[in-house]
Amino acid sequence: MDRILSAASRPFSCLNKSCTVVTCLLLSTACQNPRRIGEELFPPVSIRTDTLFIINTRQVFLPPPNTLRSPFTFIGETKDSLTGYWQSGWATQFALGGQNVQFYANELVGVDSVILELFIANCFGDISTPLCLKVSRLLQPLSSNTTYLPDASFLVEPENLCLTGKDTLYYSVFSPGARRFSLDTSLGRQILTLPSTALTGDPAFHSAFPGLYIEATPCIPSRNGAVYTILPRSPSTVLRIYYREQIGEQVVPQRYDFFITDSCAWAYRLVRSSISPESFRDQLERDSSRWSTHLLVAGGLPVGIAFQVKGWEKIHRKPILRARLVWPSDSQAKSAYNPLYPRLGSLALYADTTAEIASASWGFGDFVEEKVMWELSQPLQEVAFSRRTPPTWLYIWPPARGYTLQRWVASGVQSSSPPYLIVNSAEP
Question: Average pLDDT for consecutive 10-residue bins of the chain (428 residues)?
């Protein structure tokens, strides 16, 4: 019996010896390269690179936006070789700031000054060109139930309320912040002497004082100017009246601030005209055959790029390691970019909609040298595993496209450096 057990145990003994030898060899190899034993058990995946091609590129010219209560407005004018000639102005109401307001208790002695303060957030154009501000009384109240397109006209008094010598707008070096302009004191007296029925609340106040229309043109008409972006809801955008009232036997200096609040309506005017020689935007609108080699993305009256992607089947059911949309700049437009007329800093990508909808956003692309790159690993992973439908169309727009005049010229699919979508995936 012992002989039988001894004979039966020999194969197991040999197997143990073999396992020991294999284990020693693996440990010896692992001592030389600690990663080796992991690679034996889990070999590295092979990586596949696929290119999904961009096809059917075209320009999309959006209809003019409604400018009512927009978060940014424009004043000024400038000529841009890529997009054309821009003229802008801004109509706004001011809030009374309460109900049944009394500006002075007994007697208005005098109005010392009226200040219009504007928070200027951005600029586009030649900021060194002095612009002369023109401020006019609106003759008709704005309506919160009306659509105001950028070419809307506003009924105003012909008189310029901005004082000569106090109306100049220009910069040596631009910096966002408030700028102050002095207005005719007759405006302050008109407001402060309104009847009590006009001071019961904002609706009555807006009927009695519809507001102001603000624009700016080059002081020397032959020079090219700039368009400035105003932040209307900033605490630094305000109409201030400094005055004196009689209180008993004393004359007391007072100040009243009129801000722009939710009770107010405002709208801007932004008109684009043709220039000579013809602007790049006008060339693209006139000749769609150029879209195969040159494309434009610009704000203000927005224009963007629409395109399709060919080759979605290449990534079906594959783990996506990295996906990048790469879109080169058009080299011929480099000379149009400078500190006064900059290109866009980033670009937004949307799927299957021309609107700005969060669920349709595929992210923002940033410039790397002369190319814009979007990291699209997550949306393409969802497409690969059918958690997201492959988009029929993708759109490239400027971020906050209605409130910037900056632009970018892109290469087309038939240019020397066409756009492409490159995908790195893991092989099964």
Answer: 47 47 47 55 77 97 95 97 97 95 92 98 97 97 95 96 95 96 98 96 97 97 96 98 92 96 97 96 96 97 97 94 96 90 95 93 94 96 94 96 95 95 90
Rounded to 5°, angle at Cα 75 from 69 and 81: 120
For residue 407, the tally of other CB atoms under 10 A from its CB is 25
Q: What is the C-alpha to C-alpha distance for residues 213 and 156, in angstroms, rounded to an integer? A: 7
Q: Is residue 291 part of a domain?
A: no
CB 404 within 8 A of CB 29: no
Q: 128 with 80, same domain? A: yes
CA 110 to chain centre: 45
When divided into structural domains, the chain yields a total of 2
Q: Is the domain of 264 the same as that of 395? A: no
* Cα–Cα separations (whole angstroms), residue 106 to 102, 218, 246: 10, 44, 6
Q: 262 in helix, strand or coil?
A: coil
Cα–Cα distance for residue pair 210/241, rounded to 1 Å: 17
Q: Distance between CA 100 and CA 196 in Å, rounded?
A: 7
Q: Are residues 416 and 350 part of one domain?
A: yes
Distance in angstroms (rounded) separating the CA atoms of residues 125 and 216: 13
Give yes or no for a contact between 300 and 85, defined as CB atoms under 8 angstroms apart. Answer: no
Which structural domain, as residue segments, surrounds residue 101?
73-273
In DSSP notation, 278-303 reads PPHHHHHHH-GGGGGTEEEEETTTTE
Co-location of 53 and 93 in the same domain:
no
